[in-house]
Amino acid sequence: MTPTNDFDNSVLEIHYSIRRAKSEARRIRQLVLSVVDSGAISQRELGRQIGVSNRTIANWVEQARTERSDSHRSDTTSDGTSNPT
Description:
mainly alpha, flat
């Protein structure tokens, strides 16, 4: 889509902002998972330190693990060998 007016520019800006937000949210979930998996801090303590609920941390960890699992699944073929990418 080629912007032809201010409205089109605004729509594109919204589109790209949403894409950046999704990417940033995924990065945050991966960081949280990394910290939790390291065992250096509990989910509850991490949530307290960054100002979110323990349930939110648990949701992020679960979602990050699902994303990681989905990513690994798409990187391999049905016979378990690596997919050339």
